[in-house]
Write a structure and sequence with these properties.
This protein is 42% helix and 15% strand. The protein contains 8 helices and 6 strands. The protein has helices spanning 4-17, 19-31, 36-44, 49-81, 114-123, 185-196, 219-225, 252-267, and strands spanning 103-107, 136-143, 146-153, 170-178, 204-209, 236-240. It has a 6-stranded mixed beta sheet with strand order 2-3-1-4-5-6, sandwiched between helices. The longest helix is centred in the first third of the chain and has 33 residues, at 49-81. It is rod-shaped, with a radius of gyration of 42 Å.
Length: 269
């Protein structure tokens, strides 16, 4: 028979192991214990009622005392086994989206007509032939109620690695494609989609330029050739454009592109 001193050691060990181990030990120790009252009842067969009553009272008192001790130990074990209280976490703030840049980034393969288009967008006409951009071409429009920064990066192969570096500063990506040279569409598509992976929400304006040339691809065909249905959930504009030197008015497509750019810049304020 395990004494109460030894039982206390077992109980402490069980408390470290957890409430389940403690309850198993507790059940086993009581199920195997015979009380003095049980022995007296079996031996006396109903004799010695006075003494037997006193013994039973003593046994009942001892049982109650032991029960109270065991309940107290169970509380201690349960507290030890339970995980520490954790304060309720505040609802995490939604991650802030990357602050939108301020530049209208103008990109495209070499020969697409980016520089001529940018000149028309900024001045409203094309007075002279434009030389291809060899590096960077920065243009600003400053009026009383309007400020637009355009940044064009040349489209030669050695300059294309710089495109990605300026995506973080872009408010809008204007991607210019020479619609009269469909053999260049696969390369244009590859570079365009590589750029868009860095920002899943950056607005995109694709200008199908040189629509006035014979054999120019329609904007519908260009949409399919560039896989624009796969650019994700972003604002997308596809506009057919062309520019001609000496014309006093912008073509309807260039005018539409200009109006949309002004609108988006105003909305970003």
């Amino acid at each position: 028979m395990v004494g109460w001193r030894e039982a206390g050691v077992l109980g402490a060990s069980a408390a470290v192991a957890g409430g389940v181990a403690y309850l198993i030990w507790n059940y086993a120790s009581f199920s195997g214990k015979k009380t003095p009252g049980a022995r007296a009842g079996g031996a006396g067969g109903g004799g010695g009622g006075g003494q037997e009553g006193e013994d039973r009272k003593e046994v009942d008192g001892e049982r109650r005392r032991r029960k109270e001790e065991e309940e107290e130990k169970m509380k201690i074990v349960s507290a030890a086994a339970a995980p520490p209280p954790v304060a309720a976490d505040k609802h995490p703030e939604p991650p802030e989206s990357r602050p939108r840049g301020t530049q209208v980034l103008v990109l495209g393969l070499d020969g697409a007509g980016k520089t001529s288009l940018l000149h028309c967008l900024s001045t409203g006409s094309l007075e002279q032939d434009m030389q291809p951009t060899q590096g960077f071409n920065a243009v600003s429009i400053n009026r009383e109620d309007l400020h637009i920064e355009f940044l064009e990066i040349g489209g030669k192969e050695e300059l294309r690695p710089y495109w990605q570096k300026y995506m973080s500063k872009a408010l809008l990506l204007v991607f210019v494609v020479d619609s009269s040279h469909p053999q260049h569409f696969p390369v244009a598509r590859e570079h365009l989609h590589a750029l868009l992976t860095s920002d899943p929400s950056l607005p995109l304006m694709v200008l199908a330029n040189k629509q006035d040339l014979p054999g120019a691809c329609s904007i519908t065909d260009l949409h399919d050739a560039l896989s624009l249905s796969e650019v994700g959930d972003r604002r997308l504009f596809l506009i057919g454009t062309y520019v001609r030197k000496g014309e006093a008015e912008l073509s309807s497509g260039v005018q539409d592109a200009r109006d949309l750019i002004v609108q988006m810049v105003c909305e970003s304020r």
